[in-house]
Write a structure and sequence with these properties.
This protein is of the alpha+beta class. The chain has 3 helices and 7 strands; from the N terminus they run H-E-E-E-E-H-E-E-H-E. It has a 5-stranded antiparallel sheet. A two-stranded antiparallel ribbon has the order 1-2. The chain folds into 2 domains: 66 residues, Antifreeze-like/N-acetylneuraminic acid synthase C-terminal domain (Type Iii Antifreeze Protein Isoform Hplc 12), CATH 3.90.1210; 87 residues, no CATH class. This is SAF domain-containing protein. Pfam families: SAF (PF08666). It comes from Amycolatopsis alba DSM 44262.
Length: 194
């Protein structure tokens, strides 16, 4: 008798599991996701994308995997991490830089910028050069500009980092004149003024 009860329970569990598995996989659709992290402005290639099956709620703005060609070659409108599902708003013709703005690269050494810097981080760029050195370039120590980080790239074996900053065109011209290594980047709260 105990074997009969155990057998009946086993059959009921197997049938219940099969019903659950079938109903949970019926509404799955194949959509596009990112295979690796991509920064703001990055132009998408097929290596950046992968197809993933998800159970999507009706009305979710996801890009079907069979429409991958519609996003290839287009820039990212925001920075996203690996595994993120792509939406139409994430991929667009982002204007970097916008009218009246410019992107300038600065080189920082260890200790001149927080290691947490990432695309989209608002920063204040401060001249740290000695008074005699900075006066040669027309910028006194303590001169500062507000900017937004567009990208962060290690420069190589010398432990410097190249930080791309979006800033107004006047500030970009001034900032480009400051010699490498004579700047510090200070992170600011998100949503502050540029």
């Amino acid at each position: 008798m105990p074997y009969l009860v155990a057998g009946v329970l086993l059959v009921v569990l197997c049938v219940g599991g099969a019903v659950w598995w079938t109903t949970s996989t019926q509404d799955r659709v194949s959509v596009l996701a990112l295979a690796k992290p991509v920064p703001l402005g990055h132009v998408l290639t097929s290596a950046d994308l992968r197809s993933i099956d998800v159970s999507a709620t009706p009305g979710m703005a996801l890009i079907p995997a069979d429409r991958a060609a519609s996003v290839l070659g287009r820039p990212m409108a925001t920075s996203l991490g690996a595994g993120t599902l792509l939406t139409p708003d994430a991929v667009s013709a982002a204007a970097i830089p916008a009218a009246g703005r410019a992107v300038v690269a600065v080189v920082v050494k260890p200790g001149q910028a927080p290691p947490e810097l990432a695309a989209g981080t608002p920063v204040t760029v401060v001249v740290t050069a000695a008074a005699a050195e900075s006066s040669m370039f027309g910028h006194a120590s303590g001169t500062s500009w507000r900017a937004t980080v567009v990208g962060v790239t290690p420069a190589g074996t010398d432990q410097t980092t190249v930080v791309s900053l979006e800033i107004d065109t006047t500030g970009a011209s001034q900032l480009a004149q400051v010699p490498a290594g004579q700047l510090a980047l200070v992170m600011q709260p998100a949503g502050g003024e540029r």
